[in-house]
Design brief:
The protein is α/β, with parallel strands linked by helices. About 35% of the residues lie in helices and about 15% in strands.
């Protein structure tokens, strides 16, 4: 996950963007894809990268265009911006999912994007919102509230109303995609597994999505427990769409990071083993990033494009083992 070339254009990146890639996004993406294949990855997940984390801004880079996916030439997943209900989105108010204009917006998104992607055999499927705040909020998003009133969970009538709202959301988004693209999987919302997630929401999604997708960080037992729970909820394919573990400097326990971090390769190996034991699990998208920028502060290459060899060597070894297991 998380692939953004702007890191190579920091003023102290030593001119690497012009020198190595000639100001060409196409040349760079071909190099990125070669790296990912060499490191044992087989899919580009969600491409947008966190680029600023402050009290007033928490933003990601723009999504890849259709042309950029073609330049990379790898299997990929694409996020459709039906809502901006992400738990990290501190600036945008919640949409009214029951309004006619929400339906009109969804049709535009699908018409703009899915109509172009519909015949691409490299596309695996479409994500929706990253960590939607169905009933939870965070300190930075308390001002806007969740998508629905969590008080609805306190009564049978309220739970029916919640189910109806969620059913409309998933039906409208599904139908918008299928008007323009009958060919690809619907991967749905990337639920936050460590936040409250009503079963009514997931149950409403099931007729309209092909895979249940989750972000899940934390200890290996936590990831195993959460992913097993949802895999068994309806015996539906599940995807760990964003996760990972990190080696932190002393005193750097919070988010955003205060200092550079590295991937915890042993955590990655143990999560892979845990997911391998879940028959419904179809994959693991590592919370990148390809380049280590000043916001995320971890990755596989630094701002000068130099490889972070300890991370690469460790991850390569785990991925090679997974390929051996999958071989016929």
């Amino acid at each position: 996950n998380h692939i953004d070339s702007a890191t190579l254009r920091y003023t102290d990146s030593g001119g690497v963007w012009e020198r190595e890639f000639g100001n060409s996004q196409q040349r760079w993406l071909r190099a990125v894809a070669q790296d990912l294949r060499d490191w044992g990855f087989n899919t580009i997940g969600w491409t947008q990268e966190v680029v600023i984390i402050t009290e007033g801004y928490h933003r990601h880079s723009r999504p890849f265009t259709f042309e950029e996916y073609q330049w990379a030439g790898m299997p990929y997943c694409h996020l459709l911006p039906f809502t901006e209900a992400h738990q990290w989105q501190v600036e945008v108010r919640m949409p009214d999912l029951k309004s006619p204009d929400f339906e009109e917006w969804c049709d535009y998104v699908a018409r703009d994007q899915c109509a172009r992607f519909r015949d691409d055999p490299k596309l695996i499927g479409y994500f929706y919102c990253d960590c939607p705040q169905w009933v939870h909020t965070s300190p930075g998003t308390a001002w806007r509230g969740p998508l629905v009133d969590p008080g609805l969970l306190e009564s049978e009538a309220g739970r029916r109303e919640l189910s109806a709202i969620a059913e409309r959301y998933y039906r409208v988004t599904h139908d918008a995609i299928r008007r323009y693209d009958p060919n690809h999987l619907i991967l749905g919302d990337r639920y936050e597994a460590n936040a409250p997630l009503p079963e009514e929401v997931v149950r409403a999604a099931m007729p309209y999505v092909d895979v249940l997708s989750f972000q899940c960080f934390g200890s290996v037992p936590n990831v195993r427990t959460k992913m097993r729970r949802w895999a068994g909820f309806a015996d539906r394919p599940v995807l760990l769409a964003d996760g990972g573990g990190f080696v932190r400097a002393p005193g750097d326990e919070g988010w955003p990071p205060k200092a550079d971090r590295t991937h915890d390769v042993e955590h990655y190996r143990q999560v892979m083993d845990a997911l391998w034991a879940i028959p419904q699990c179809v994959g693991y998208h590592l919370c990148g990033a390809y380049l280590r920028n000043n916001a995320r502060r971890y990755g596989f290459r630094d701002r000068t494009n130099a490889p972070i060899r300890q991370t690469i060597e460790g991850i390569c070894a785990v991925n090679a083992e997974m390929h051996r297991r999958m071989a016929p």
